[in-house]
Specification:
alpha/beta, three-stranded mixed beta sheet, two-stranded parallel ribbon, 55% helix
Length: 170
């Protein structure tokens, strides 16, 4: 099921220098989207690309984000499985499709900022039109990140601040 989260950060922003919080945001948003789209399922499995740079983030942030979610919904991700696969091997077409979708989505986010009047690319439009109702892509811009940081400084819970700020949902 295509779901995803992205963050735009201002250059030299505090989160850019310490990307841990941004990665936590991305994983927590991923889990929240799964909760919203599939409220009754338990033991959900995730497959990530085997690339070392992907695995390092999954290894560092998957469990802490899962802990945050399980505080809200105990046991939701109990018994879940995290797998890794090579997206260049036959049989892992879903990872190849995810790479294509992420590429087109990232381009669209960038073009919205750099060329706001530009129409979406045809591959982006076709992929977006073909998706299911379970698809959800959340994008947090730099202002949303600033809001979350500010609310956390006031003592708000990370997830509460994240849910209250504006994100683009496609």
């Amino acid at each position: 099921v295509p779901i995803g989260a992205s963050v735009s950060l201002k250059q030299h922003q505090r989160w850019t220098e310490t990307p841990d919080t941004a990665w936590k945001l991305l994983f927590v948003r991923l889990f929240l989207t799964v909760l919203e789209r599939f409220p009754v399922q338990h033991g959900i499995s995730f497959v990530f690309d085997r690339k070392p740079e992907v695995r390092q983030y999954v290894d560092r942030f998957y469990e802490p984000a899962k802990t945050v979610i399980n505080e809200m919904t105990p046991g939701k991700f109990h018994g879940d499985i995290v797998g890794f696969a090579n997206d260049e091997e036959p049989g892992f077409e879903p990872l190849q499709a995810a790479d294509l979708w992420a590429y087109e989505w990232r381009r669209r986010i960038t073009e919205r900022v750099t060329s706001p009047d530009k129409s979406p690319r045809p591959p982006y439009r076709r992929i977006k039109e073909a998706r299911t109702n379970h698809t959800a892509l959340h994008h947090y811009n730099a202002d949303a990140v600033d809001y979350i940081v500010g609310e956390m400084a006031k003592g708000r819970h990370f997830v509460q601040a994240m849910l209250e700020c504006q994100s683009t949902v496609e």
